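Annex B. Sample input.
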Amino acid sequence: MEKRGKAAIVYDSGYGATASAAKTISSTLTGLGIDVIFFQAGQRDLPECDRIFIGSPIRLGRCTPEMKSFLIHHSDKLVDKKVFLFFTCMNVSSDITHCDFPVFADPQFREPNKPKTRSGLMEATHTTSYYLKHLLKLIPGIAPAAVAFFKGRLDTDQLPPLYRFIMRIAMLTMPEIQNGDFLKHETVESWVHAHIDF
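Annex B, continued. Sample output.
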């Protein structure tokens, strides 16, 4: 197969969902004839490549500290790259009506009838605009080629005590957050095919 450039995939993962999404992106790109360099944040510096896919779980509205460090350290090198961002989380509502780049939200994220117990603060901090506001501050001057939010996985029994407490509160106020593995690899593949170009 004719080679169609080189891509890097750098990710961080808490409980495996983001790593699984990254592996699906890697296999999809490889199937398209693109050379792939695949590594976890903190393992190596940013290699020479045409495109870079950057993935992290969302925790309390932020990416992981390891990914934050990677983005800050390499922000000057990312300016000349075609950057794709992907994130895993348990709930996000799409509230962006206009953006300079495509923002994809997994169809599994849905807006059910809002229960009376849902707090305004919880709702406001689980939107695409809220997440992107903080994430894009880490890479000023860079407009991603595309951004995706995929529904990941949750096992509250495996969380540290503080995160477990926070997530159980979130589950009470937002019933769409549930324990389980929700990552759909076909959704990740479709996103890559929709936004890759040669």
